[in-house]
């Protein structure tokens, strides 16, 4: 009898040891993959935290010691983060007033933190319906459609996070280059308007849907955990394949993040969970960054193929401006066509007022 008890105890200890070793092996494997293919995070609002907490006074910010954000240098290193898209976000209540100034200030604070910044901007506007407002254009306005094609010509990356399904379908149907959803998840897992329905996932094809970690978009509730986030990865992979998946944490822009993904340092645990669920090394590497790098390459290829195309310098119709503070210079009788503007002006219009988050 004593022998049986000893053997049973040994078996329990052995099984427990195997479980621990297996978990450690998965984490080690995750670290290895993240060193070979650095993680690219599609959306991070750290610059907004600089403004919110420090009024952009960077002399007061020590990114090695900053403890009030999801992101700092020690957490970045621990999380094996290779790159992030930093958002030049400003609140919606600034639209049509001081939004341009505040956006430029946010760009400036990013430039003061690093030498290079991926020029991806966001603002709710009158050129495209958003998921949070009543529909005005049944999707893109006519001028909004022009801007999509001009973005293709310029080699700008189109981001469809924060737009309704109508706009998703319109842009996917007309853009010559692949697009991204920088921080959106699977609607079938959590039916929130910020997430992407299955029928749209099937149309993304060469683009990327970068899974968001905000609890409200993960479980449609105030609470979530790491496994719930992995469910979104699994669902997108099942519906449309691993080639359209990426990471879009939304850290420092949300108030609730999943248990187990409290900050950017925890992302390797999510990678280990995907490995535990049977994802191959190649599949994980695609999600970490290879898929997004492929999109970059294709966007540039489309740009290069359109080098012979002339810039679209037709300005926004005056009737679409909906801003009494805007100068009417160049608009005869405050209506009709304005004198042609430069491509740079159009680019600024795109960057500061147009598209998507």
TrEMBL record:
It is found in: Membrane. Its cofactor is Zn(2+). SUPFAM superfamilies: Metallo-dependent hydrolases. One of its GO terms (molecular function) is metal ion binding. GO terms for biological process: proteolysis. It catalyses: an L-aminoacyl-L-amino acid + H2O = 2 an L-alpha-amino acid. It holds the Pfam family Peptidase_M19. It is a lipid-anchor; GPI-anchor. Its EC number is 3.4.13.19. One of its GO terms (cellular component) is side of membrane. Homodimer; disulfide-linked. This is Dipeptidase. The lineage of its organism: Eukaryota, Metazoa, Chordata, Craniata, Vertebrata.
């Amino acid at each position: 009898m004593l022998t049986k008890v000893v053997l049973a105890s040994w078996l329990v200890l052995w099984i427990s040891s195997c479980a621990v070793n297996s978990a450690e092996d998965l984490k080690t494997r995750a670290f290895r993959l993240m060193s070979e293919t650095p993680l690219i995070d599609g959306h991070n609002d750290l610059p907004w935290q600089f403004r919110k907490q420090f009024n952009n006074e960077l002399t007061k910010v020590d990114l090695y010691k900053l403890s009030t954000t999801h992101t700092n240098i020690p957490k970045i290193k621990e999380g094996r983060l290779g790159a992030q898209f930093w958002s030049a976000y400003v609140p919606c209540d600034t639209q049509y007033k001081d939004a341009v100034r505040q956006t430029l200030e946010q760009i400036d604070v990013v430039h003061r933190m690093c030498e290079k910044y991926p020029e991806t901007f966001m603002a709710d506007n009158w050129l495209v319906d958003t998921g949070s407002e009543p529909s005005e254009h049944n999707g893109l306005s006519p001028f909004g459609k022009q801007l999509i094609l001009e973005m293709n010509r310029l080699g700008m990356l189109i981001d469809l996070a924060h737009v309704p399904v109508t706009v998703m379908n319109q842009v996917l149907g007309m853009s010559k280059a692949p697009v991204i959803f920088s921080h959106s998840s699977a609607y079938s897992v959590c039916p929130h308007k910020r997430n992407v329905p299955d029928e749209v996932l099937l149309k993304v094809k060469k683009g990327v849907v970068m899974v968001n970690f905000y609890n409200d978009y993960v479980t449609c509730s105030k609470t979530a955990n790491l496994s719930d986030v992995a469910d979104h990865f699994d669902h997108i992979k099942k519906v449309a394949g691993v080639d359209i998946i990426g990471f879009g944490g939304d850290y420092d822009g949300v108030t609730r993040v999943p248990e187990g993904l409290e900050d950017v340092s925890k992302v390797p645990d999510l990678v280990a969970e995907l490995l535990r669920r049977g994802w191959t090394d190649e599949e994980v590497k695609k999600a970490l960054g290879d898929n997004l790098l492929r999109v970059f390459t294709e966007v540039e290829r489309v740009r290069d193929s359109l080098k012979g195309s002339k810039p679209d310098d037709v300005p926004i119709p005056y009737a679409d401006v909906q801003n009494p503070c805007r100068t009417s210079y160049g608009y005869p009788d405050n209506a009709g066509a304005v004198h042609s503007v430069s491509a740079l002006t159009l680019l600024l219009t795109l960057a500061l007022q147009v598209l998507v988050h």
